[in-house]
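Researcher: Please predict.
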Amino acid sequence: MNPEKSSAKVEEYAFGGLVAVVGAFTLIDATTIAARADNAVGPRAFPYAVGALLIVTGVAAIVATARGRLGQAEEGEDVDTGVRTDWVTVAKLVAVLVAHLVLIATVGWPVAATVLFFGAAWTLGAVWWRALPIAVVLALVVQVVFAYGLGLSLPAGIFEGVPFLDG
């Protein structure tokens, strides 16, 4: 057997095993999430689904490797190696993320998420007057879905007491 192909096979088995182990960990860890009994979906549903899909994907990768179906080795990508990293953009994204983390506790999720969504979009080149209303709507939709769809309460902050935003 070709030593290069043997090495690739070991790597693919390791990848499939790692994905399955992460899935098992996700399922086990999801059992520790506290949930109210009155909600059918609850906060455990998503981690259970993700954990199960990870296990299925990991096992499928292992089975495919055992049957000899290895991934194609990449010859190279169409990447311009002369282009340098835009550290200013990276710094702006980090600043937006840090601002989001700080703002959640002080002004609540809707405002913090609006800052996160708008800041990331604007940093990556979106037109500000289009990005801002979309960020506001997206933050409010996430707040409402978590509060009513999943029964989880994201901090409403300055919107505490607003009926559809208060989980």
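Model: The mean pLDDT is 87.
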